[in-house]
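worker-3 :: picked Lipid A 3-O-deacylase PagL
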Amino acid sequence: MTGRKFYFIIVLLSLLPALSLAAPYYGANFSYTLITKEPPSLHGYQLMLNYDPQRFKWRQFNVYFDGGFSHFWVTNTPYYTTLNIYSIAPVVRYTFKKRGPVLPYLELSIGLSYLNHTRLDDRNLGIHFAFQDRAGIGAFFGASERLSIGVHAVHYSNARLSAHNSGITVPLLLDVGYRFN
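worker-3 :: tokens ->
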């Protein structure tokens, strides 16, 4: 192998990792409960910060990470009226199209969460630890794909790690998101 070919191969190999790394996305999502199920008089909102390193992509699948704060309250009881939840989760997103002014997607996630109380209304949630299950649909808008609007469902449960496992289910939250970069 000649010296020129050797240097060309070395330069090419050193550039390959840089070519596969896209700039990461940072963003925030705000969600508000539209329909609740367990307990039925539940109200609340979520604020999620997300980090998409752009490294975990395969075709139209992508994995990103979010962490956030959820605040729920009930209005029909004078006791055990509020609950704060802190969560972190990987999210798998499938985007139906690769380009365009509207990019619809489907998301699924299972993550970890901490509940500041073990009771809400007459529900015994068992322990402070719970799993957060989430499924949603939505779309990115615009050429820069910064704005997203969607809906999702969320469920919190300790998966029977405790004798009590009432759980919380919100079948419909409206979700508005923004990517900062």
